Amino acid sequence: DLQETMTAVNQGMSVEEIKQVVAQRVANAIEAIAIYETKRRRGSFQVNEPDRMTRRRGSREC
User: Would you put residue 56 in left (φ > 0), alpha (ψ -120 to 50) or beta?
Assistant: First the structure.
């Protein structure tokens, strides 16, 4: 991304415009992570619940 930012500077973007682009990309990344985590949690609670119980029982036996 540094290379893209430097290219943008060379294309005449102001520092403020670059800050806005970076802020938007960070916001997009945070949103994508939040969506991923939500989907992962939903999936793991629905599908892997028996696996967790099996692992717990297995760890007690050791």
Answer: alpha
Q: Looking at the chain, how many residues does it have?
A: 62
List per-residue pLDDT tens for the chain, 62 residues long: 666 666 655 678 888 988 999 999 999 999 999 999 999 888 865 544 555 555 555 555 54
d(CA 37, CA 32): 9
Domain ranges of the chain: 2-61
Contact 17, 5 (CB under 8 A): no
Note if the pTM is more than 0.70: no
